[in-house]
Amino acid sequence: MFEVQKGRIETGNFEEIRMAGAEHEVRILPQAGFNVYYWHYRNEEVLMKPVDLMQIGTKYGIPILFPTPNRIENGVYTWKGKTYEMNKRGERVKIHGLVKDEPWTVTKLEAGENAAVCEAVIRIAFGDDLYEGYPFPCTLTVRYTLTADGLHMDMEVVNDGIEEMPFGFAVHPYFSKHGDASKVYLDVPVKRVYEANEALIPSGVISEMDPARRPDGPGHSVDSLYLDNVFRGMSEDAVSTVTWANFKLHIVSSDCYRNVVVYTPHDRPGFCIEPQTCSTNSINLYSKGLLDESGLLILQPGQTFKSWVDYRIEP
Fold this sequence. Notes:
The protein is mainly β. It contains two helices and 28 strands.
């Protein structure tokens, strides 16, 4: 039997949603970007323990990156010949979009014999704080479903405006190194990488990566790679795998997630495998005529876009 319940935690006086069942426990912070900040399986970490829970944004958990995943060069973008500044409450936002640190509204909590569900919504509407940097009215709904197999994410974007809406979507999970990155292995089946400058802004060229630095194939321990790169070549049939001592995690996503960011910092207790629909700086690449390379999604007025990401546990 699965369960879902509301509570509060002392840190930040945050509301917390707890889902549990089949030896999984997941905790979510709706007020802090609807972030899954805690996931244990059989009392072991799947996600790394947050270093500081008050670092709301993209430092822990599974941050949600919308409408512009990853970096936007200088926090400025061009769409249909018009230049926009990605500002929020007067501050320039250069990375990971606008919703990662915002409060979301929980719309559904359900639990039953086989699953627990938590769903929440956030809107960008005329005149609000997010509209300042992204003047495209829309509604984003994310639903987490916990089952015996793991955690499933469903995403739905609705264009509430009267113009075409350019966007991208990504998730940025921090998986645990379990204290020793030399004993955690990853396999991400990609060979092509976006060439980028020192600021990690891509040129639009996608090339074959040196096999010694690629994350594909078994046997790559997390500490053997030092990556912060956007790769091309994912699909619904491509499975990324993380292997710990006692279980594996398989990451599968819908076909729109053609890209993936692999981030393996050596100075943090976690690492990231980030399904992503688009490139870094996607909207600017698109505006330069690099339509396929950008991966930018465009939603017509009144239309809905749906996608999903699966995190499947194998004991």
